[in-house]
Amino acid sequence: MHSHSSPASPAQVSPPRPLALVVDITGTSVNYNHGLSKAFIDYPDVVFRTAPYFGDRNAFRSTVLKRDFLRTATWLVDRWPGIIRHRRLWKAIQLQGYLSGWRDVLREMTRKRIPVLHIQWCKVPFVDRWMMKYAQRLGIRVVYTAHNALPYGDGRESVRRAHQKLYRQADALVVLSRFVGQQLLERVDDSVADKLHVIEHGVLELDCPLPSRQQALAELKLPPDAEVVLFVGRISAYKGIADLIDAFEVARRDRPALRLVIAGDPEDSFEPYQAQIQRLGLTGIVQSHPQFVPEEFKSTLYAAADVAIMPHREASQSGMGLEALAVGKPIIATRTGGLVELVEEGVNGFTVPVSDPPAMALAITRFFKLPPSEQNAMAIASRALGQDRFAWSTIAHKHVVLYRNVAQAATTTVQATQPRGRALEAASSGSSEK
Question: pLDDT (tens digit, 9 = 90+) per residue, 256-265?
Answer without folding.
Answer: 999 999 999 9
